[in-house]
Structures are given as C-alpha cells and as structure tokens.
Amino acid sequence: MKPKIIALYLPQYYPFKENNEWWGTGFTEWTNVGKAKPLFKGHYQPRVPADLGYYDLRLPCIREQQAQLAKEAGVYGFCYWHYWFGNGKMTLQDIFEDVLASGKPDFPFCLGWANHSWSNKTWTKNKAFQKDVMIFEMKYPGEEDWIMHFNYCLPAFKDERYITVDGKPLFVIWDAMAMPDVKEFISYWRCLANDAGLKGMHFTAIRYGSGTSIKELLNLGFDSVNNTNQYEAENKALGSVIQKKIRSLFVRITNGEVALRKYNYKNIIKYLSSIEDRQENVYPTLISGYDRTARAGKKATIYYNYTPELFDKYAKEIIDEVCEKEDEHKIIFLKSWNEWAEGNYMEPDSQYGHAFLDVLRKN
C-alpha cells in the first residue's frame, strides 16, 4: 500500500473581519505574496500562482479544483488548520465549516489545531518597530472549554470523509508543549469520544526542533509524532560551529541587511529525514519548499535552488522511511498544500507548473 500523504492546508485566502481591521479591507495572504521582491540574484520572488490564480477560497469551485489537483498527484487528504483560542473564540473557520456542511469536496480531511496567538505582526513583514498588539490570545481555560471545543469538532469527526488511524479520528496539535494540561486534555477528549460513539481519538503532536524529543511528546499521551527535522537540518547545513556563530552575528547586527538566512536546498535535504521516522508511531514530514520572504522580508528563512529534481530525490527518501510500517501508519505529512507566503506549497505556479505535483504522482 502506498503511504497516505496528508497535506497541511491554510484556509486564509478570503477577506474576513480581523484581517480587514488590522491590515486593510480585502487583505489576504495574496497581498503579501504579490508584493514580495527578490533579495539576491536568482531568488524566485514573487511567487505567482498558475492554474488557480489568486483565488478566493469562498468559491466552492476553487476548493473542488484543489482537491482534484491533490488527488491526481497522489495526496490522500488535507489537514485543515483549525484556530480555536479558548472560550469558543475562533477565526478562519468559515471555509472548513462550508466544506463540512456542503459535503464538498468529496476528499478526505482532518483537523490540525493551530494553538498559537495572533498579533498585528502575524501576516506583516518589516514591522520591527511597530508595537506588538495582541489580536487573538491563545488561552487554555480548562474543562468547560475542552467540552465546548470537542462538541464543535464532533460533527467533523463523525463525517465519513474524516481521516482516521486505527479507526480513530486523527487530530493534530501544533504546539503540544504550550498546553498546560495536555495529558488531562487528551484523556478527557478520549472519554468524550467514547461517549459520542467514536472508537477513541488518535492524537498527533508536531515536533519542530531539537528542544523536544519524540519520547517526551509520546510520554504526554500522544499516539504519534509528526517529526520535522527542519531546524536541525538548517543548523547542519551551515557547517561548522564557527560559521554558524559568524552568520548569526551578522544577521543580528545588520537586521538581515547583510547576511540573509538562506540555505541551499541540496544541503538541507541531506538532513530532513532521520532514523526515528521509521518508528511505527512517527510520521515524517515532506517539505514542499520554504521561503518566508513574502511575510518576513530580509528576516526570512529562505531555501533556494529548490528544484523538482531535488524534490524527487528527497521525496523518495521520505517515502522509503514508512514503507515497512503497517498500512494504517504509513502516514506522511506534506508541509504544505498552499502556504504561498512561506514559499511552502504544492499548487502549480508560473515557474514550475505541475512539476512538483508530477513528482508526487510518480512516487
């Protein structure tokens, strides 16, 4: 059985109240994407979408086309980012709610809880001297909120399209270590799931860097860990300790004006997979490029020389990491389907067309 590639999906591409208030009427991530400028010779900016154009996710036909492109490329389903800030406070829920209510697209999905605060710098670059004002503060009120949150998600968990692992709804948490009572939360939701007639819950924690181990996250009660070696790869790609310190010093002193945080993709992919990815309860990550210029300007982290040929080599390595696992656990998270402002997307663009989608399809 081929692995299940689950693509992270940003439901941000439509105007809504908070974006209008803080960044101007009609603002979406496309605003920053279109304004991005190259920072060095050969730097691919701005990123220009091809087949779907600068779309508005409120249009069902766009969501249908996205699902069709993903399906044809061998993507198993989408993981919609879900923004719940506590006490029922939410944002960016409109698109997923419409997907759920309409039954379209007929394409597997799960939810990823993006449990982080939003400030007025969230979507904006070059705002170093602007006061950081909180728009949505991430709060963890406790048991009543756990019940409210679960009941909101329950219709999705019961939807026949919802992705399950071992028969249990898959729920991804972005920052497990930020949750003060994560063990209790997991245990409580499992009880609520059983009471609701589900077979339980399958909780996946995302591991971003070397500061937290896979073992630590599993000990918190998670069933699995989505492992990303991105930060470790960046450190290793820099070379010696002295080189790292010199580059870090230049970045800090010049505010990114002299030394950009850029990495050659061919060096990055050497370190993106790890032996831990072969564990039954570890789901590796396939990174579809990375370039945060549209959001962060000269402070961006940039992977350059990102080509379909190198992506092909890297994808084969990640797929190989899961090939010996049980079918239910042959899961790979694709980061991401449509994070255009992070240069982290699979949708066709004006430079490469369907080339990266074709790599997935062939593998």
The helix/strand order is EHHHEEHEEEHEEHEHEHHEHEHEHEEEH
Question: How large, in whole angstroms, is the Cα Rg?
Answer: 20 Å
Give the averaged pLDDT, no decimals.
91
Strand order of the largest sheet: 1-2-4-8-9-10-12-14
Instruction: Sketch the major β-sheet.
Output: 8 strands, parallel, barrel
Instruction: Provide a count of the helices.
Output: 13
Contiguous uncertain segments of 5+ residues: 125-129
Secondary-structure content class: alpha/beta
Number of E-state strands = 16
Portion in helices: 25-40%
User: Judging from the principal axes of the Cα atoms, what is the shape?
Assistant: globular
Distance between the termini: 12 Å
Strand content: 15-25%
Task: Report on the architecture of this protein.
This protein is α/β, with parallel strands linked by helices. Helices cover 35% and strands 19% of the residues. It has helices at 17-23, 29-35, 60-73, 94-102, 143-158, 182-195, 214-219, 230-237, 241-254, 265-268, 293-296, 308-322, 355-362; strands at 4-9, 77-86, 89-91, 109-113, 118-119, 134-136, 164-165, 168-173, 202-207, 224-227, 261-264, 282-287, 301-304, 331-335, 338-339, 344-345. The strands form four sheets. The chain has an eight-stranded parallel β-barrel with strand order 1-2-4-8-9-10-12-14. Helix 3 (60-73) crosses helix 13 (355-362), helix 5 crosses helix 6 (182-195) and helix 12 runs parallel beside helix 13 (355-362). The longest helix has 16 residues, at 143-158. The protein is globular and about 60 Å long. Mean pLDDT is 91; it is low at 125-129.
